[in-house]
Amino acid sequence: MQSYSFLFCLPFWKGCRRLSGHMLSKTMQKRISRFSQYDTILDRYLVSMPLIAQLGRNFKYDKTNTGFTGEDLLELACKRIISVQKVIGGKMTYIECASNPKLHTFYSKHDFVVFGEREKEQNELTESPVLVQMLRYFKGL
């Protein structure tokens, strides 16, 4: 089995995201409705949440054997977001990843759910022309 090291950048605030109501479960809609605005005409929630950016493999450091896995780094990012949200409010974070089954499985395993897609911008480096947007709701926060 191949091991990977990961390059990690801290999350940053991306601003408000528009979440389509029909893409979310009823439970998630109920949770989000407590701290978002809902537009009945567009069937969308407006939510401010941080983006976990630049969490990915970096083959340059594979030989250093840092012992950190993707799970470790994702959990560190989520813990940092939780500590900030305890101070300023909020209960969610999101990622944008390439439309790739392995990435979808990885993030789904860590309680992220798909809420949308967007086309990549010209300056973004990714193998996929479409980025899948996934969110995680932090229970008990």
Structure description:
By secondary structure, the chain is α+β, with helices and mostly antiparallel strands. The chain is 26% helix and 33% strand. The protein is built from three helices and eight strands; from the N terminus they run ββαβββαβαββ. The chain has helices at 26-33, 70-88, 101-109, and strands spanning 6-7, 12-20, 37-39, 44-51, 56-57, 92-98, 112-119, 130-137. The strands form three sheets. The chain has a three-stranded antiparallel sheet, with no helix packed on it. A three-stranded antiparallel sheet has the order 6-8-7, covered by helices on one side. The longest helix has 19 residues, at 70-88. It is globular, with a radius of gyration of 16 Å. The N and C termini lie far apart (36 Å).
Helix fraction by DSSP (H/I, runs of at least 4):
25-40%
* Biggest sheet statistics: 3 strands, antiparallel
- Could you list the spans in which at least 5 consecutive residues all have pLDDT below 50? 1-13
What is the gyration radius calculated from CA atoms? 16 Å
In spatial order, strands of the major sheet run 2-4-3
Could you state the order of secondary-structure elements as H and E?
Answer: EEHEEEHEHEE
Strand residue content: 25-35%
Distance between the termini: 36 Å
User: Which structural class do you get from the secondary structure elements?
Assistant: alpha+beta
Total beta strand runs:
8
Globally, the shape reads globular
The number of helical segments is 3
Return the average pLDDT rounded to an integer: 77
